[in-house]
């Protein structure tokens, strides 16, 4: 037929696949933030709230089962994940996830700046003591 190469859709047309984030319910994020901000965290309530919010559950299990975390066993349940992380790290992780998800429509620079300021305040607070400025973090953040 006089040609060397042929391009065409013999079997199928190519499909463009788009990956999307799991949609999040911002009200559930606020509830999670409220739960981890309490002085006494109730793990049963937190476990139920994480189970209800698929995007948080997916992120938690993906984070703990990643090679960077270095767990020898596969973590399949929320209860196991919460036990592995511990109370302090659960509080920090949920706050981080809530902040990042809230900043999805903002520029990445703004979210990064907020995270840096939050970490700075977290590191500075033990050195200042128990004054009102530590609670509001006005000592380091505008």
Structural account:
Helix 1 (26-37) runs antiparallel to helix 2 (43-52) and helix 1 packs antiparallel against helix 5. The protein has helices spanning 26-37, 43-52, 54-64, 78-85, 87-102, 108-128, 132-136. The chain is mostly helical. The chain has 2 domains: 19-105, no CATH class; 107-142. Mean pLDDT is 78; it is low at 133-140.
Quick summary of this structure?
This protein is an all-alpha fold and 142 residues long.
The amount of helix comes to 55-70%
Using DSSP, what is the number of strands?
0
The major pleated sheet works out as: none
Rg computed from alpha carbons, rounded to a whole number of angstroms: 22 Å
Briefly note the structural class of the backbone: mainly alpha
Order of helices and strands: HHHHHHH
Question: Rough shape?
Answer: elongated
How does the SSE layout of this entry go?
Layout: H1 26-37, H2 43-52, H3 54-64, H4 78-85, H5 87-102, H6 108-128, H7 132-136
Supply the key terms.
elongated; mainly alpha; 142 residues; disordered C terminus
């Amino acid at each position: 037929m006089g040609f060397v190469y042929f391009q065409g859709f013999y079997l199928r047309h190519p499909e463009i696949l788009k990956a999307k984030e799991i949609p999040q319910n911002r009200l559930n994020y606020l509830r999670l933030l409220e739960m981890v901000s309490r002085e006494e965290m109730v793990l049963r309530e937190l476990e139920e709230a994480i189970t209800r919010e698929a995007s948080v559950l997916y992120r938690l299990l993906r984070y703990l089962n990643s090679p960077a975390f270095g767990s020898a066993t596969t973590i399949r349940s929320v209860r196991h994940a919460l036990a592995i992380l511990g109370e302090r790290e659960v509080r920090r992780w949920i706050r981080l996830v809530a902040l990042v998800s809230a900043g999805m429509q903002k520029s990445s620079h703004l979210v990064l700046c907020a995270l840096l300021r939050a970490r700075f305040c977290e590191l500075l607070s033990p050195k200042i003591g128990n004054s009102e400025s530590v609670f509001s973090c006005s000592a380091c953040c505008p």
